[in-house]
């Protein structure tokens, strides 16, 4: 069995010690899905992309499943307000992501990172590229009229989740889903969830039996609803790298928490 | 008076957008890409 993990930088393992680079095969083997693969003595592949949105996540898993057999996908969905497009004239072969940071025309990486931080050069290059290719202008217009409103991010992410879930179920492929931030995905929006029947229908189509969320917080200002990996790690004060990524211990403990559900899903599939 | 209303609406939209963008960046603090 090949365990294939998809998600954003948390699943790539950005800022973990053994993450070599952001190119092919540069991913870490210390992330929580990689730990589950190790415990299972299974092969491991990672199709995550740093900074990507949920469209890329779904596409990468489908692409992997179309080209491999005996696959168990583990997906950690990212923030709903990252949007992936194949933008004409920017890069004909690679999808581009628009996020709230590209939408800020004034942003300079030095405002958030120092030059000594490992991610500074990566962020600087990407920032420069966004300006050169016009992605920052596109992001600014898109976010002003679409992306910063709560409807489109939630609607498009639920569509991707239902799309991938139905693809996997139709093919009889077992899978495990979780997310980076459950508040942004399931608990933070207001008007549409209550009033929009289509959003409600999409939400009802998501089969939560194959999901694991991290337990709600109990202390002071911790999140009182089930959490995603990033929320859980930050609120439990795990060591965090300068660029904001939870370090190895958070991944070790996350894999321990995921183990039981993972075993159950694998067993179910083998029966 | 329509031009005044139009400027007012544009400024309100811009301010609302700037505030929302700040909130989103707080929730997703990852700058790269």
Notes on the protein architecture:
The complex is a heterodimer of chains A (about 270) and B (about 35). Chain A is of the alpha/beta class and about 270 residues long. Chain A folds into 2 domains: about 1-80 and about 150-270, Rossmann fold (3-Layer(aba) Sandwich); about 85-145, no CATH class. Chain A contains 11 helices and 6 strands. The mean pLDDT of chain A is about 90. Chain B has about 35 residues and is mostly helical. Chain B is rod-shaped. The interface of A and B includes residues 52, 144, 181, 183 and 244 of A.
Instruction: Report how far apart the termini of chain B are.
Output: 44 Å
**Architecture of the largest domain in chain A in CATH?**
3-Layer(aba) Sandwich
CATH class of the largest domain in chain A: Alpha Beta
Strand content of chain B: under 5%
**CATH superfamily annotation of the largest domain in chain A:** SGNH hydrolase
Helical segment tally of chain A? 11
Mean pLDDT across all amino acids of chain B: 85
How many domains is the backbone of chain A divided into? 2
Mind telling me the C-alpha Rg of chain B? 14 Å
Structural class of chain B: mainly alpha
Task: Let me know the average pLDDT of chain A.
Answer: 88
What structural class do you assign from the helix and strand content of chain A?
alpha/beta
What is the overall shape of chain B? rod-shaped
| Rough outline of chain A | globular
